[in-house]
């Protein structure tokens, strides 16, 4: 496949590559594989389409992109030295500062050019470098648009519609000899602008104000508006061709003149090296790990608290999807966090598959069955589950509260929150942090600068009203969310996170486990009706205590407060007063305070004294005085009660509303069944049907693995062989047929040729139409022909296959040197 002459087309350049190089192209641009090209020509054509080229340009770093932009303003083709000159300049300005930059550019340019070649954006030898036509159209200036370099069109492009008389006037003003040939006139003017000596003399004769005008245009944009009666400096520039008319009101500084004023540089500030990520603090790695571990435990507990609060059925789902603003505020209040943080925890639980819609007619959010399994895991394993889900999630909670493209508000857990760039940005941010010394906290601005250098075009499309591009916002959210989740501690990457990125969840959990305190089996009861948990509690103890008391404060120690309502909640769950006394005595390291014992006995004595049932609903009580008290209370009017018997009242509201109403009045009623038994309400019964975690939205086609790449390269090579094969009945060197056409022979000729090839072991070129009607060209070596089928080694598929003879459109023998 080697070539002795320079390639004339991109297809020839790709054909000259080895298999490893072709695989590198397909790996860097996986969109070229969908579907697998039939041959090299198809691959080259697809690599030159606008959508594919734009996608490839978006993945270039800043210097590789600057290299492509410099080639776009150079002549086509351009030698390596010309390209280097456009990046370093001719040394006529900037002194030592730019000399140093020039050395860095010379060192970095071969690597940038290799990247562009690998991605088939540049082809040709160093003496004749060519940027693919589509990339040139995107990056090069035109008479209407400036290039990303700020350069305008060439003299030839800017004067394409100018009258010969006007050209003669410009030549005369510039001191150039007159010519009646427009092409010669344009060439002479361009030669003037590229001649350093003559151009210097022309600018020395210009008015000072004219030079000020050029200074404003030289680095772009190169276009300016003029009035019908321009000022003398502008008129001088226009008369001497330094400003050429684009329209009646617009002029442009031609590219050749701008390059002279720029000292030959295409870019004002070439950036051959990525900016360094700077540190704002160097902390003790052990302190970092401890802080991150504490935050990781808090993250696990917060997600568990959120899902526990939605155990009996969470908030309703908006018709358009997601949480309402009111429900998000309520959730934030319950978690004691700001609303954006509450949205993050809800989105994290959703991404981890622990939260979903229940699918009912009146849809609500509820924990999934996977939550129960997750809750039984050790804290370190629960954290790795959350962290892994966060790393891969494309849902971006930072967008909550903003607006979509149609101006609609974006809600937590709602649609339109997927951003396919999020996983790649998160991994890249963490990779930059991992490259720093342990304990080093980076400067966020330097992280953003590095990301912008690595993907400059990704930050070019900024939506209206935004001051920061999406990738930068995701990066800032990543830094904040990393701290919330325990990925980082005090701004630096934790050791267990490095293990998660390098070795996986198991290794991360093993490193995190020693940093998380062991769950405790006791609390400290205090006389002010509070209990202090000096650390995380064992799950049965935590569940029971959360039913018996309300959390008053969180932190290193959790404070629980006992209230009549919380004690009643435990009694509603089926506990008796004796059970509660025994539980507290067994799990308290301090004696049970007498006020707490009195509180439990008092609530238990009144609990169930009233009985609620369905009549629509009713209240029954053996103490007539209590019922008289309820009827006399003005707050009971909304319950619409009436007496059925001395010990029974009927209500026109449902039992749940009646229970709630009487509890708000200060009573402690209990619900009962149709048989008269007390109904026990246990926490955490509502679950969604089995749900899988949301699938991240991919950013473009996935990167193919080695097996697929190898098969694709073999198929492209074989298809190229079939497309360029030479038949014996054609002149040497002539193409096998017109592009896309198949060989045509009669059935008898096909059978005879195939049988002869099977006997001699020679290869054939065939046209084949499969069962789906797709036509292809193949090169086969027949082995056996029988029963209407031919068994042959297919060079295209690199395997032995069997083909029905009636699906072969025709055959042709290969020239003797066709497979050499």
Question: What does this molecule look like?
Answer:
The protein has 820 residues and is α+β, with helices and mostly antiparallel strands. 45% of the residues lie in helices and 12% in strands. The chain contains 33 helices and 25 strands. The strands form eight sheets. The protein has a five-stranded mixed sheet, with helices on one face. The protein is extended, with a radius of gyration of 39 Å. The N and C termini lie close together (10 Å).
Summarize the structure.
The protein is an alpha+beta fold and 820 residues long. The chain is extended and about 120 Å long.
Write the layout of secondary structure elements.
Blueprint: H1 10-15, H2 19-28, H3 40-47, H4 50-58, H5 62-73, H6 80-88, H7 95-118, E1 122-123, E2 130-131, H8 133-139, H9 155-158, H10 164-173, H11 182-194, H12 196-204, H13 208-217, E3 223-225, H14 232-239, E4 244-245, E5 250-252, H15 255-261, E6 279-282, H16 285-309, H17 325-335, H18 339-351, E7 355-357, E8 365-367, H19 369-375, H20 379-392, H21 422-434, E9 440-442, H22 444-454, H23 470-485, E10 488-489, E11 492-493, H24 495-502, H25 505-512, E12 524-526, E13 530-533, H26 539-548, E14 550-553, E15 558-561, H27 564-572, H28 577-587, H29 594-606, E16 611-613, E17 617-620, H30 624-632, E18 641-645, E19 648-651, H31 655-664, E20 670-671, H32 706-724, H33 747-760, E21 764-769, E22 775-786, E23 789-794, E24 799-804, E25 808-813
Parallel strand pairs: 16-20
Antiparallel strand pairs: 1-2, 3-5, 4-5, 6-9, 7-8, 10-11, 12-13, 13-15, 14-15, 16-17, 17-19, 18-19, 21-22, 21-25, 22-23, 23-24
